[in-house]
Inverse folding.
């Protein structure tokens, strides 16, 4: 059945294909940019480093904010929530890399507690997020 026509021969149906195309493009743009928006929603002053690599697209973000508050993928969680939610996320993709953002003000022990908890849950790949600065990487410390 073709487009309906009125008695004067004009097409009276609206072609929605271009609108659907535009909506799908907008949806893809929002999905891609949403991860960057949520990561920057929590004010964390990351340590600086000159070496590093880009983050993996299949990664989880865990933020240890000032005061020791935890966030998973931009949502504030407790340590118990983290223990409950991470195994389900790992079942979907066992090779998931976890990016740990620890604020400069947070005690080292708190960040290690989070990493130790994640390792106990089966996370194999970790990365620490840093602010990139220009320059050569620091020389390794001697014995």
């Amino acid at each position: 059945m073709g487009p309906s026509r009125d008695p004067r021969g004009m097409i009276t149906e609206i072609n929605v294909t271009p609108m659907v195309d535009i909506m799908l493009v907008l949806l893809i743009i929002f999905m891609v940019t949403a991860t960057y928006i949520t990561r920057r929603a929590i004010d964390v002053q990351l340590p600086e480093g000159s070496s590093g690599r880009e983050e993996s697209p299949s990664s989880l973000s865990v933020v240890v904010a000032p005061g020791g508050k935890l966030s998973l993928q931009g949502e504030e969680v407790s340590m118990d929530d983290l223990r409950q939610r991470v195994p389900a996320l790992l079942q979907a993709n066992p090779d998931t890399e976890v990016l740990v953002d620890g604020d400069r003000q947070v005690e080292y022990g708190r960040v290690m507690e989070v990493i130790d908890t994640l390792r106990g849950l089966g996370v194999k790949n970790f990365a620490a997020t840093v602010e990139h600065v220009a320059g050569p990487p620091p020389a390794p410390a001697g014995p």
Observations:
- The domain at 43-132 is CATH 3.30.420.270 (Nucleotidyltransferase; domain 5).
- The two ends are 81 Å apart (CA to CA).
- The first strand starts at residue 48 and ends at 49.
- The mean pLDDT is 75.
